[in-house]
Amino acid sequence: MELHPYLRVNPPQETSERFPQWTHDETVEFLAIRAQLDKSFVETKRNKPLWQAISSLLQQRGFFRTPDQCKSKWKNLVTRFKGSESVEGEINRQFPFYEEMRKIFSDRMERLLVLEKARGKQVQVHAKEWEEEEGEGKVAGSKKRRKVERKKRTEEEVEGAVRDFMRRQLEMEARWAEAVEARDTERRAKEEQWRRVMQGLQEERTDLERRWREREEERRVREEARAERRHALLIALLDKLVHRDC
């Protein structure tokens, strides 16, 4: 594989070193790996090892990114994808990875639907088994009541799983929103700090220019005073010479 000029031969050793921006090819590889591991991300709550795995797989393909960089990149892509989803028409095509992101989330929902269908079939099988296990001496009303209760419990389990999935999704979205808001707040704070520093420098420069003009004005006044004194002295000497000659 021919490496992009942005890529390094060896991964950076210092955490403070500036990393290059993500290239298009690098992002495509990242999304392909993230799509393969999406099922694991949904099923587990501790996803730090998964980000480490993505970082390792990217490194094998010639792209050196830390787990934190991968996680931050994913959050950024999700935010941009949701922004493109909220508009109509062909504006979302301005997001170059729209199709890749849409496929990841579509596959996720398909897996959830398949899981629900599988659990529904399992409920039907269990219901049939429960019917066969019912003895002929049992009352028909009791059999029906037990079937309804068991079916209800199974449906509640499915609903609980769906609610848990949606809760995790909402928590993830909330964390993404908080991260975006935190970055915006930090950016605004840095911009305000920079503005204050520049304002202070401008005021300091203005003060220096004012003091320089004041010193120049004082020097000019002194020079004029000395010139007037010299002129007066010369006039006095000339007067003495004229009177002496007379």
Automatic annotation (TrEMBL):
In alphabetical order, the GO MF annotations are: DNA binding
Which keywords label this protein?
Answer: Coiled coil, DNA-binding, Nucleus, Transcription, Transcription regulation
One BP annotation, GO: regulation of DNA-templated transcription
Could you tell me which CDD domains the record lists for this protein? Answer: GT1
**Ranges where the record places region Disordered:** 131-153
Taking the first listed entry, what is the main subcellular location of this protein, grouped into a coarse class? nucleus
Q: Gene3D superfamilies in the record, alphabetically? A: Homeodomain-like
Basic residues bias: start-end ranges: 141-151
**Span of domain Myb-like:** 22-78
The chain's coiled-coil residues are 191-218
Q: Which Pfam families match?
A: Myb_DNA-bind_4
According to its UniProt record, where is this protein located?
Nucleus
InterPro entries tied to this protein: Myb_DNA-bind_4, SANT/Myb
GO cellular component terms, alphabetically, are:
nucleus
Highest taxon of the source?
Eukaryota
Protein name according to UniProt: Myb-like domain-containing protein
